[in-house]
Design goal:
Elements: H1 2-6, H2 8-31, H3 46-63, H4 66-72, H5 78-88, H6 92-106, H7 126-166, H8 181-185, E1 187-198, E2 205-211, E3 217-229, E4 236-246, E5 251-258, H9 266-272, E6 279-281, E7 287-291, E8 295-306, E9 318-330, H10 338-350, E10 358-359
Parallel strand pairs: 5-6
Antiparallel strand pairs: 1-9, 2-3, 3-4, 4-5, 5-10, 7-8, 8-9
């Protein structure tokens, strides 16, 4: 089901081809083939056309019933068929009978001067040879068109994905910014703590309160599962959400760390858009910075191990994921900046600009 969700266009093409094969080949040709009834001899193969012409000519030579002959020629190119057989037959008597039947219709008969004796077998015309394979050729043509459309779709899809990731001048997703030494020098260390996710922990969510040296509550930070692939249990976790809450700031700063596969999956990225626009590729050894009015959090990814389930794309979900948090408090006294943040929100809405972070009132 996860493959269907991530590749709707490809699945549509697959379903179309399967429907075409089942409808045309299985049902149309196999179970419920087209049957002709009460049709004229034009739809017969050359062999049966010849048999029909011989039967009419033989009947006329026996009873000389011109009315029956005229009825036999009605509604199709009978004159051409009779004369064609008359020029191909090796039996002069049969040629005369066919000519006599044609003379009833056109009062002239056939031009038998160009009769060329053959080995007695009727010639197979190019039209007859093509008739038997025309439907098959049409079917192959449709399959070829579908294949070309599928290749065109996949090619354009790949170009769109590559273009979306190279818009900033790089073919890979940007790394998270790292706190500068100058920023670190302006802050005071508060705490350091680490945590590890292990595959199978479907309720993984780690958070801890941030307090100063006087045990005053400043906020909290943590990590939790943001998205998983499919509906399997245990979950195939493909993204984690990091957050930093500051009691002096009305918004919660968030970042989403994604697997190598998920960062290129537009479906996953759209679902995670509700958690913020800071979607980053998780890389071992990388430091991510979350900053609020009075706090700075550096989250260091210390270990990444991907799962190896053969049923899922490579590097799509995490087997182990470890991160270490370092928190600093900025120097100075801070009051809740509610008024300033409200003005910022009002300006953002007025400019119709989406906010990057999730609001937490």
């Amino acid at each position: 089901m996860d493959f269907v969700r991530k590749n709707p266009g490809l699945m549509l093409l697959i379903v179309f081809v399967l429907g075409l094969v089942i409808g045309l080949v299985v049902l149309g040709w196999g179970l419920f083939p087209l049957e002709f009834t009460d049709t004229n001899p034009d739809y017969l193969s050359q062999t049966y056309k010849d048999n029909y012409a011989r039967a009419v000519a033989d009947a006329y030579s026996f009873d000389h019933n011109t009315q029956k002959v005229q009825q036999a020629f009605t509604g199709w190119a009978g004159v051409e068929a009779f004369c064609d057989l008359a020029t191909r037959t090796t039996d002069p008597a049969e040629a005369q009978r066919l000519n006599a039947a044609v003379a009833v219709v056109n009062n002239v008969g056939c031009d038998l001067s160009a009769v060329a004796p053959t080995d007695g077998q009727p010639e197979t015309t190019a039209a007859d040879e093509e008739g038997g394979s025309s439907v098959f050729k049409i079917f192959l043509g449709i399959l070829l068109v579908v294949l070309v459309l599928a290749i065109f779709y996949l090619y354009n899809r790949r170009k769109e994905i590559m273009a979306s990731h190279s818009a900033s001048g790089s073919s890979m997703p940007d790394m998270a910014p790292i706190a500068s030494e100058e920023d670190a020098a302006k802050t005071t260390p508060i705490a350091s703590v680490d945590t590890t996710y292990v595959y199978g922990d479907d309720r993984f969510e780690y958070s801890f309160p941030i307090e100063n040296e006087h045990q005053e509550f400043l906020g909290d930070c943590g990590i939790a599962i943001a998205e998983s692939l499919g509906s399997d249990s245990p979950k195939n976790v493909a993204a984690f959400e990091l957050w930093l809450f500051d009691k002096n700031d009305i918004r919660t700063c968030t970042k989403v760390l994604m697997s190598e596969h998920a960062i290129y999956d537009e479906g996953v990225k759209v679902k995670l858009a509700t958690k913020g626009t800071n979607q980053l590729l998780a890389r071992e050894g990388e430091t991510l910075v979350l900053e609020t009015i009075s706090l700075i959090l550096n989250a260091v990814v210390t270990e990444i191990e991907y799962g190896t389930d053969a049923g899922l794309p490579p590097e799509s979900y995490f087997q182990r994921f470890s991160v270490k948090f370092h928190v600093w408090q900025k120097e100075g006294e801070y009051e809740p900046d509610i008024e300033g943040r409200v003005e910022e929100l009002q300006k953002g809405h007025a400019a119709d600009e989406p906010m990057d972070d999730t609001l937490d009132f």
